[in-house]
């Protein structure tokens, strides 16, 4: 008679223990009592012979089960190790992507400030020259050529000086305001709450490949395109009237790519999305629902 479960063995032999090792020990005790060696190599009855064969078959089953269990344990350990390593790799990629995004945002802000130095310096230089001429009029009056065209003591020259001073001050204030707004809006892209909202909006608005088989699939390029055309402009609060003073810089073209990597890596680590193994030039993702 063969047994295929511990429960059936316990019920058949009336053993309370659920441990395979304890059950085997109990069966070994019983088989020892009826072993034919104790009766000159013969069974004392047909019932003892049947009991011996039944117990021996059961012990063989338990030994084979224990052997299979030992063989499965290393395989399970390897599977767990692969899963752990994969999780660590994804987490490490997420950390690296977040750092690259932070660097690109800082570079973008620095580049904006550097570009704004040109109008600031030009306006300040002109105002400084006019101020010197206004403060030291004798310098111009003694010059044979400048004195023919410029009269620092004239009221109109004073008005021009005041205008240049006011305009330079306003230019510095406007550009500083733009820089602060640009910096604040771009640094918001480092926040997980903002990143999660952008990704949820991308999925909800359907700016991706049409669902197939009940699952939402999208290309990485589609998500980058969404961030480029929609999200980046939306989170930047600079007034349109000031754009002629501070146009979009080139670094902004790299921000959507870096931002997409951060968001997609986090979504993959959290199990919200997975990579589609289909043949595509670009990375294809599928939303796990």
Annotate the secondary structure layout.
Blueprint: H1 6-13, H2 20-33, H3 46-135, H4 137-141, H5 146-149, H6 155-187, H7 192-205, E1 217-219, H8 220-235, H9 255-269, E2 273-275, E3 284-287
Antiparallel strand pairs: 1-3, 2-3
Description:
- Mean pLDDT is 75; it is low at 240-251.
- Strand 2 and strand 3 (284-287) form a beta hairpin.
- The protein is rod-shaped.
- It is mainly α.
- Strands 1-3-2 form a three-stranded antiparallel beta sheet.
- Helix content is 69%, strand content 3%.
- The protein has one domain.
- The protein is built from nine helices and three strands.
A few lines on this structure:
The protein has 289 residues and is mainly α. The protein is 69% helix and 3% strand.
Domains, number = 1
What's the helical proportion of residues?
A: 55-70%
Return the structural class: mainly alpha
Low-confidence stretches: 240-251
The count of strands amounts to 3
Instruction: Give the overall shape.
Output: rod-shaped
Query: How much strand?
Result: under 5%
Number of helices: 9
Radius of gyration: 41 Å
Order of helical and strand elements: HHHHHHHEHHEE
Nearest-integer average pLDDT: 75
Characterize the largest beta sheet: strand count, sense, and whether it forms a barrel: 3 strands, antiparallel
Terminal Cα span: 48 Å
What spatial order of strands do you see in the largest sheet?
1-3-2
